[in-house]
Design a protein that fits this description.
Structural class: alpha+beta
CATH topology of the largest domain: Glutamine Phosphoribosylpyrophosphate, subunit 1, domain 1
Shape: elongated
Number of domains: 2
Distance between the termini: 78 Å
Number of helices: 10
């Protein structure tokens, strides 16, 4: 009975998918390497991708909090992104969704797809006509990755890494091994994996664009969206370096403070901050006009809050007598640069 129910569900999802296929679609060659993954502990789900193709962001990576993620590449069928997410939202596993997508596509032999669902099930497909080197790896419950070549769907757990027109399989192996061995948030691990893949060889034709997309329920700027990270490098000689730079900026201005990174505003720190925010010439705005005495009064606190809002540290503004180490370091860095150049 269980097999009949699963077969019926898969058949039904297939029919829905076929009926919704675009009547006319064209595919562009998106030679790239990517990794889709999930953190099953907090629900973060996302994609990291680099390509010798401009503006890879609207083509390859797709993700939805509580649902999963898709990377569609090679001669990309961009509709795989939304359709894959729809299938998983309706109950399909990553493997079910991928089989429906691939088996319903006349151009499947030129496609490459990685997909993961909200439960951590992962699957990857590299069509037989993808340009070499092409293939993928998916995570497993053991310490060994499940490796696949062209023309087969491979399944596993935790992540799916894949690439085409690569220097060699070492790129995909670096994606997988780095993701498995890196500590930190999902976004940290995805970016580290992508950088390692580039260092291991990457695209045979070079670099051009990159993207990092991570979704988390309610994690957007004002907690009304799921956009934890959405960074794109459209066209750059060193897109992975640029992606890393932008991610560090993003963390500073969009991530809330880690409690372990908070320090007390001591008299010395307070005096330093009072001096900076009382320098009207610095920002063309006088934030603080009181004494520079190192006493963290309500007036000093209000002035610092206004200054932090002016400088876009919105999500790290505090009501107590603490400050984020990273914010303090950035304030110091910027004021030092200003002082040296004025």
């Amino acid at each position: 009975m269980k097999k009949i129910i699963i077969a019926t569900l898969t058949f039904g999802l297939t029919i829905i998918y076929i009926l919704s296929l675009p009547k006319n679609s064209t595919a562009q060659l998106i030679s790239t390497f990517s990794i889709v993954a999930i953190d099953t502990l907090n629900g973060d789900v996302g994609v990291a991708v680099q390509s010798k193709f401009p503006n890879v962001r609207p083509v390859v990576p797709w993700a939805e909090a509580g649902v999963g993620a898709v990377a569609t590449q090679s001669f990309a069928n961009v509709s795989f992104g939304k359709r894959g997410l729809t299938l998983m939202r309706e109950g399909a596993t990553a493997e079910d969704a991928l089989r429906i997508l691939v088996n319903s596509d006349e151009g499947k032999h030129t496609r490459q797809v990685g997909i993961i669902d909200s439960k951590g099930n992962a699957a990857s497909w590299s069509g037989g006509e993808c340009f070499d080197w092409a293939g993928g790896l998916v995570g497993a419950n053991s310490a060994i990755n499940n490796f696949g070549r062209k023309g087969e769907i491979i399944v596993g757990k935790g992540f799916a890494a894949q690439g085409n027109i690569l220097v060699g399989k070492e790129t995909v192996e670096a994606l997988a091994n780095t993701f498995r061995n890196t500590k930190g948030s999902l976004a940290d691990r995805l970016l580290a994996s992508l950088i390692a893949g580039g260092k291991a060889g990457g695209d045979r034709r070079g670099e051009q664009s990159a993207a990092l997309l991570v979704k988390r329920a309610g994690a957007g700027y004002d907690n009304t969206t799921d956009d934890l990270v959405d960074i794109s490098v459209y066209d750059h000689q060193k897109p992975l370096q640029e992606l890393e730079r932008l991610y560090n900026i993003h963390k500073l201005f969009f991530f809330k403070s880690d409690p372990s990174n908070l320090i007390d505003i001591t008299q010395t720190i307070c005096k330093e901050l009072q001096y900076i925010i009382s320098d009207k010439a610095y920002k063309g705005m006088l934030f603080y006009s009181g004494p520079i005495d190192g006493i963290y009064t309500n007036a000093t606190k209000k002035a610092l809050q206004d200054f932090m809002g002016w400088e876009n540290y919105d999500v790290r503004i505090r009501q107590d007598n603490k400050i984020d180490r990273d914010v303090l370091a950035d304030i110091r860095r910027q004021y030092k640069e200003y002082s040296l150049n004025k």
